[in-house]
C-alpha cells in the first residue's frame, strides 16, 4: 500500500482560483487556511489583477498604491458620501445656511426624476435658500496616508430642476478641505438661471472624472486633442498633457519601444515621432528627376530615370533610377533635426532607423 503524498498547487494557479472567489471570502476564509493560501491572498499582484479585471483604474498612472488590497476595497466601496441626499430623513445631516421666503421644504418631485427611486426632494422658496454638509473622509474609511499617496478622484454630481411658474437660480460649491479646514481644491461652476414659464426639466451638475475624460480623448484624433481639447479648461489640459494618456495611445496604436530599458521622458513627443514615421528620403523613385540627390559618379551612359523593366511589387512605382555600364553612384544627406527628431530625443531614445532599398 502506498502512503498518501502531499499535493502542492502552484501559487499562480491558486491565485487564478482566488480571482473567482468573492473578495471578502478571500480575506475572511481562504487567507486562514494555510501559509501558502495566506501568501496568495496578501499578494499585491493578486489585488492588482482584481482591480484590472473589475475596472478599478488609477487616476494618476504615476501614483502606484503601496497597498493594492486597500486600493481595491476603497474602489469597490465607492458610494455617495452625502448623508440623506434626497431629504427622505427630513434635514438630517444638513446645515441650513440661509432660509429665506417660505423656507426650505421637502416635497414629492413636481416632474418625475430619471431615477424612479427618487420620491422626495428638497424645495427652496422665493428668497435665498442655502444648505451645506461637511463630509469627514477619515470617518468614511479614507485614511490620511491613502489620500496623500493616491489622491483619489472625488466625483461631484447633483440633480436640480426649477419650478415652471417662476424664475430661479441654481448654485453649487464643493470644497476639498485639509485637516485644518483650509481649502485645497474647489469646484464652482457658473450659476444656472431659469426664466419664468420654463419646462422644469431635471438637469445634472457634475464633475467628469479625469480617467473617464482620458478614455474619451483616446477616441479623438490626436491633433484635435492638442489643438482643441487641450485649450478648453485646466482639467482638459491636464488630461491632454498626461504621460499616461500618450503612453496608452502608443499601446493601442502599436508604437512600441525599441529598447524596454529606455523610457521616454515625453510620451507625447514619442507618440507623434512614431505616428509621423515615414520615408525620410526625398524623391526616392526619381519622380522629381534627381531633386534631393547628389551624383557622386556618373560613368558610361550616366544615370537615367525610366519606367521599371519588370512590374514592381508596389503598383504605385512607375519610375526608377537606372545606372549604366560604368560606375554610377548617388547620395543623399538627411538632416534628422529638420525632420523633427531633436537631439535630446535621439540621445534619449536612440530610435531604430529602418533601412530598405529595392
From TrEMBL:
Tell whether Lyase is among the UniProt keywords.
no
A Pfam family of the record is F-box-like
InterPro entries in the record, alphabetically?
A: F-box-assoc_dom, F-box-like_dom_sf, F-box_dom, F-box_only, Galactose-bd-like_sf
Which of UniProt's keywords are assigned here? Answer: Ubl conjugation pathway
CC annotations in GO: cytoplasm; SCF ubiquitin ligase complex
PROSITE patterns recorded: FBA, FBOX
Which ranges carry the FBA domain? 71-248, 270-358
GO biological process entries? ERAD pathway; glycoprotein catabolic process; SCF-dependent proteasomal ubiquitin-dependent protein catabolic process
Can you name this protein? F-box protein 44, tandem duplicate 7
Q: Which organism is it from?
A: Oryzias latipes
Amino acid at each position: 500500500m502506498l502512503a498518501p503524498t502531499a499535493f502542492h498547487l502552484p501559487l499562480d494557479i491558486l491565485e487564478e482560483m482566488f480571482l473567482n472567489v468573492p473578495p471578502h471570502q478571500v480575506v475572511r476564509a481562504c487567507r486562514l487556511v494555510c501559509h501558502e493560501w495566506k501568501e496568495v491572498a496578501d499578494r499585491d499582484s493578486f489585488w492588482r489583477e482584481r482591480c484590472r479585471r473589475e475596472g478599478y483604474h488609477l487616476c494618476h498612472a504615476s501614483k502606484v498604491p503601496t497597498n493594492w488590497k486597500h486600493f481595491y476595497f476603497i474602489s469597490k466601496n465607492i458610494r455617495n458620501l452625502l448623508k440623506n441626499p434626497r431629504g427622505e430623513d427630513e434635514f438630517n445631516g444638513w446645515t441650513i445656511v440661509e432660509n429665506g421666503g417660505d423656507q426650505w421644504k421637502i416635497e414629492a418631485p413636481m416632474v418625475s426624476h430619471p431615477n424612479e427611486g427618487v420620491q422626495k426632494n428638497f424645495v427652496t422658496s422665493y428668497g435665498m435658500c442655502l444648505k451645506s454638509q461637511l463630509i469627514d473622509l477619515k470617518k468614511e474609511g479614507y485614511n490620511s496616508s491613502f489620500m496623500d499617496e493616491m489622491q483619489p478622484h472625488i466625483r461631484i454630481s447633483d440633480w436640480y430642476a426649477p419650478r415652471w411658474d417662476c424664475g430661479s437660480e441654481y448654485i453649487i460649491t464643493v470644497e476639498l478641505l485639509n485637516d485644518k479646514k483650509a481649502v485645497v481644491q474647489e469646484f464652482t461652476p457658473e450659476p444656472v438661471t431659469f426664466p419664468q414659464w420654463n419646462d422644469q426639466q431635471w438637469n445634472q451638475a457634475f464633475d467628469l472624472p479625469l480617467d473617464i475624460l482620458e478614455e474619451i480623448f483616446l477616441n479623438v484624433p490626436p491633433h484635435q486633442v492638442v489643438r482643441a481639447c487641450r485649450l478648453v479648461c485646466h482639467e482638459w489640459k491636464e488630461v491632454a498633457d498626461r504621460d499616461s494618456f500618450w503612453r496608452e495611445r502608443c499601446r493601442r496604436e502599436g508604437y512600441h519601444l525599441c529598447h524596454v530599458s529606455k523610457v521616454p521622458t515625453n510620451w507625447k513627443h514619442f507618440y507623434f515621432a512614431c505616428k509621423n514615421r515615414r520615408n525620410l528620403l526625398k524623391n526616392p523613385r526619381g519622380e522629381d528627376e534627381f531633386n534631393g540627390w547628389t551624383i557622386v559618379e556618373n560613368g558610361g551612359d550616366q544615370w537615367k530615370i525610366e519606367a521599371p523593366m519588370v512590374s514592381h511589387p508596389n503598383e504605385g512605382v512607375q519610375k526608377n533610377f537606372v545606372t549604366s555600364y560604368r560606375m554610377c553612384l548617388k547620395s543623399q544627406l538627411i538632416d534628422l533635426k529638420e525632420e523633427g527628431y531633436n537631439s535630446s530625443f535621439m540621445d534619449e531614445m536612440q530610435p531604430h532607423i529602418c533601412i530598405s532599398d529595392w
